[in-house]
Amino acid sequence: MEQVTGVAAPMPQHNVDTDIIMPKRFLRTITREGLADGVFADLRFKEDGSEKPDFVLNQPSWRGASVLVVGDNFGCGSSREHAVWGLRQLGVEAIIGTGYAGIFFDNARKNGLALAILEESQRDELLAKINANPGAQVSVDVVAKMITIGDWKVAFQMDKATRQALLDDRDDTLDTLKLLAEIQTYESALPDNSCVKIIK
Amino acid sequence: MARTLYDKLLDTHKICDLPDGDILVYVDFHIMNEYTSPQAFSGLGSKGLSVRQPEAHLAIVDHVNSTQIDEAPDPVSKLLIDNLEANCEKHQIACYGLKDPRQGIEHVVVPEQGIVAPGMLIACGDSHTTTYGALGALGFGIGTSEVEHVLATQTLRYQKLKNMRINVAGQLSAGITAKDIIMHVIRKVGAGAANGYAVEFAGQVIEQLDMAGRMTVCNMAVELGARAALIEADQKTLSAMEGKAHSGRCAFDKEIWQTDIQAVFDREVYIDCKDIEPLVTWGISPDQAVAIGEKLPVLEQMVTDKQQSDFTRAMEYMGLAPGQSIVNVPIDMAFIGSCTNSRIDDLRAAAEVLRGKRVASGVVATVIPGSASTKVQAELEGIDQVFIDAGFDWRPQSGCSMCLAMNDDIAENRERIASSTNRNFEGRQGRGARTHLMSPAMVAAAAVAGKIVDVRLFTQA
Question: Which of A77, A127, B314, B325 is deepest in the core (most CB within 10 A)?
């Protein structure tokens, strides 16, 4: 993916954890599919399944947002990749914040979800802009590492490897297997007792 | 050049540099559970790949199983458990299933079986893999795509973290546990403050902790955002590795698994634990905690609008008022369990509080030993009877259970739980459920009092 352009929804709460992004009842599956309904389910839906009208993604301006502008430490907690699969299935392609929990960050990269990092003041300015102009389109350009809303532009941070992974859209497992010779060389240099042989 | 313990662990496991700036690291051992591995195995299948080193993996059933019976509580849980067992059978991977005497919570079982040694790199599809840092090993929590990658390649594409050291000093007062120490650290440093860092815990307080306490500290370091937590290996570490099923089967003696004296950290944090009191969380993030003698914060202490909004939301969710005391808040449930606090040492500490006492009427109290072996040990010591006599439900099967409520133990809306677990997130123990994190001894005291109390009133009477 090179660029995302779409409606950006404000989610300014800090410490949004993967339990709230994807509640556990949706984890009881052996596939990656069917997780869109689980995203923020306790915030989006009442117990009877009807929508909570106040929730940001249920408001007409922000329904179907493909970009989220979020608080600090988004994606903290559990390692569940289901949170990222669900966000992608719901149509979220980029998230803009000040920093993310490590496992969520890696999971996002593996699934083509762009996580952009801004300084706190820049993120707050962007939040103010999308709140003042609900439904405004925001563009996240991974090639140029630039966020644009109207005529306002700000450069975001993204490390080289993450950016490259998003641009390449490669399969990491198959790519690493091309390095089998290096892996075998490392293994052959290991002392015999430095590999646990599990007792079955 | 002087290096940190983390630097040494990475240097030892580095296979090669990757073109994009990441490094390829070798995974000595990998642990799986039934809910974050299914899609990894199907990924292998669809790509026609096999498991590279089947003996370097272990699967353990712990997240979805019931702890009331030795089987799945419903058809979906059964599907997840059967699927794991079938995948392990197919790929010749060891699996400790529900009827296995070694089954239990993965991060309790693995050290108990002697599979962790200083200098190892261990990966697991679970965020609390930081636990293994207590033994000087690099425990690394990963997502499902990375589980597939480890199965197929025995490696990880890895982005080097920055180094942080948290120095914990101060003479602890009587009755203060490892749980209080790490909760104090999290409250001072902040949730997410260690994102992007490997955190080494050091200082006199850490050195004096026993191995169970060190595991509790490293376990909850992930709530700081730490992707890896570490404590230098010492004599206690070596003693802890003796007499286990896998003792002597692995040795990683290429290095001295300690930080060089001259090593420089990207960030050093100093925490004073002198005179700290037992801690209790009041909110919906692990850093929203108070000492038992303190009042809850008030809105005016929150500086920015966003902090005020998060504060108000947490207070509303928890049904508490700013400025109130946490003491005497009534509870509905008491839960002792989880990879943070369900080891034999934790059960002993809670039993000490419960001996000769009864759980308050109206409180549902549950204890889940961290593993089948822990349960056997507790029964040998008569600890099970102390819990049972007090009115606790002593569960026959181990598992994560109501720490994350993926099985049949789910709290109801607005139920308030004194919990020895690790996360007080909104909805974590059930939709609308209100979690107060605390030490196992504090949970036991709350169970008896029917409300949150200072455990030291029980133990020092």
Answer: A77
Range of the domain at A162: 3-170
**What are the pLDDT digits (tens) for B324-375?**
999 999 999 999 999 999 999 999 999 999 999 999 999 999 999 999 999 9
Interface of A with B in 144-173 (CB under 8 A): 159-162, 164-165, 171-173
> Taking every pair of C-alpha atoms in chain B, what is the biggest distance, in angstroms?
65
Q: Are B191 and A161 a contacting pair at CB < 8 A?
A: no
Same domain as B143, residue B86: yes
Residues 316-345 of B with CB under 8 A from A: none
At residue A193, the pLDDT reads 62
Q: Which CATH number covers residue B40?
A: 3.30.499.10
Q: Are residues B144 and B237 in the same domain?
A: yes
Q: What is the pLDDT of residues A83-142, one digit of tens each?
A: 999 999 999 999 999 999 999 999 999 999 999 999 999 999 999 999 999 999 999 999
In this complex, the residue of A81, A164, A196 whose CB is nearest that of residue B29 is: A196
Please check whether residue B57 touches A, CB under 8 A: yes
Task: Give the residues across from B210 on adjacent strands.
Answer: none
- Amino acid at residue number B44: L
Contact B15 A183 (CB under 8 A): yes
My answer on whether B74 and B174 are in the same domain is yes
Tell whether B106 lies on the interface with A, counting CB pairs under 8 A. no
Question: Is there a single domain that holds both residue B27 and residue B156?
Answer: yes
Q: Given CB atoms, is A125 within the 8 Å cutoff of chain B?
A: no
Tell which of B245, B268, B291 closes a domain.
Answer: B268
User: Residue B56 is nearest to which of A47, A164, A196, comparing CB atoms?
Assistant: A196
Q: Are A199 and B152 inside 8 Å of each other by CB? A: no
Q: Are residues B213 and B318 in the same domain?
A: no
> In 3D, which of B88, B139, B106, B177 has the Cα closest to residue B420?
B177
**Would you call B409 an interface residue with chain A, using a CB distance cutoff of 8 Å?**
no
Say yes or no for a CB contact (<8 Å) between A30 and B425. Answer: no
Q: Let me know whether B86 and B116 are in one domain.
A: yes
User: Same structural domain for residues B196 and B146?
Assistant: yes
Q: Which domain holds residue B234?
A: 5-268
What ipTM does the predicted assembly reach? 0.97
Measured between CB atoms, does B153 come within 8 Å of chain A? yes
